[in-house]
Amino acid sequence: MIDKETNIINELAVLYELSLSTGTSLDLGQNCASFIDTLVNKKNIDYGAVYLNASIFNVEAEEYLKFYSIPQNNLDADSIPISKVPSLNIGEIICCNEIDCGEAEKGLGRGSYAAISLGETGFIKLYSSETNDLKFNETNLNPLTGVVRKFHTSLQGSLAHSLLESEISHRKDSESKLRARNEELKKLNVQLDRFVYSASHDLRAPLASILGLINLIERSDSKEDRSISIELLKSNIMKLDGFIHDIIEITRSSRVEVKHETIDVYELVSGVFNNLKFLKGNKNIQECIELSGDRQLVSDKHRLEIVLNNIIGNALKYSNPDSSESYIQVVIDNQPNAVAFKIKDNGIGIDPFHVEKIFDMFYRATDINAGSGLGLYITKENIERLKGTITIRSEIGEGTEVNIKIPLS
């Protein structure tokens, strides 16, 4: 019987050596499959598995992980003396026992099993059922020793390949992040240059006006002239304060992390309208809020408030003074994965030439109610931080429609 079993193992050894000579895959999984499948598919062995050291994969788990097995039985390694694995030479037999699998390894009948060392890499486990002529012992397993060593060598190649692929992937990821960071820095440098130039002008202009008005107040004896100058002084100070507020908001938007909080979206929009009701020019403008879906959503309340405040504020500032039926309509579509806002008005509109540029820093599409030129820039920055989108359609004399979509947490 031993000669017959030895011949069977030798046959399998030759088959696997032939499979190695025709080219072993560098893929770790395919390499293990090639070895185990060759044994099991000849039907001389009922079950085979490769266990690899968990430290190879840098995971917190049991000392050894069952990396590949055929068939996928619930065959564990509890009965194998694990502590002996690293101390044995590659290809040496860890144990070879005939067992009552009903007690030691649930789900299988009586039979014999063997474990062969792969050194510090792991071990191979084989099982032969009671109905199989093959019974494992050291004599009939010895012919596998040389093949196991070759299998171990190919495993080291696969592991090195996996490590190299991981390193290449990591480097590509790092290079991609570095390129993205460089592009971001280029964008920031361009914005910084424009910011310094425009900010210095926009800060100096109201300051120069303030100094001029103070000079007029000091020289004037007319109470009426002084009163007019004081009102202009207040206007310039408020303009300067608004500009500084916008600068602070830009810094805050880029540095502060996005929050996730429960918001009543209908109340949020109503609050924005309420805060803007005393805005200059906000007279006889019909306000309409329509909500589809739940009132509650989870997002960053402060950022949404800034976005809606800027868009609705612009709709109020640039309403048509000649129209007796001015309106601002806000349609909210609150769905489980995203919320959409459509803000529509019948104001003076925007020349299509300006639409693509209005989100640029300091860009002003009109001199009417001229602001800092930062409002829509801040709006888009906040929307992008929320991973959302904004589009604008507008025609002179017809009005403007702004569509915003924000994914929800």
Features:
about 400 residues, about 45% helix, Beta-Lactamase, Heat Shock Protein 90, about 20% strand, alpha+beta, 5-stranded antiparallel sheet
In short:
With 409 residues, the protein is α+β, with helices and mostly antiparallel strands. The protein has ten helices and twelve strands.
Q: Give the percentage of residues in beta strands.
A: 15-25%
Number of strands: 12
How are the strands of the largest sheet arranged?
Answer: 2-1-5-4-3
Instruction: Write the element-wise H/E pattern from the N-terminal end onward.
Output: HHEEEHEEHHHEHEEHEEHHEE
- The coarse silhouette is elongated
Total number of helices = 10
Can you characterise this structure?
The chain has 409 residues and is α+β, with helices and mostly antiparallel strands. The protein has 2 domains: 166 residues, Beta-Lactamase; 153 residues, Histidine kinase-like ATPase, C-terminal domain (Heat Shock Protein 90, 2-Layer Sandwich). It contains 10 helices and 12 strands. Strands 2-1-5-4-3 form a 5-stranded antiparallel beta sheet. Strands 7-9-10-12-11 form a 5-stranded mixed beta sheet, covered by helices on one side. A two-stranded antiparallel sheet has the order 6-8. A hairpin with a 3-residue loop joins strand 9 and strand 10. Helix 6 runs parallel beside helix 10. The radius of gyration is 38 Å and the shape is elongated. The two termini are 68 Å apart. About 2% of the residues have low confidence.
Give a topology summary.
Layout: H1 2-21, H2 28-41, E1 47-53, E2 64-70, E3 93-99, H3 101-104, E4 111-117, E5 122-129, H4 138-141, H5 144-219, H6 223-255, E6 261-264, H7 265-275, E7 286-293, E8 296-299, H8 301-317, E9 327-334, E10 338-345, H9 352-355, H10 375-385, E11 389-395, E12 399-407
Helix pairs in contact: 1-2, 1-5, 2-5, 5-6, 6-10, 7-8, 8-10
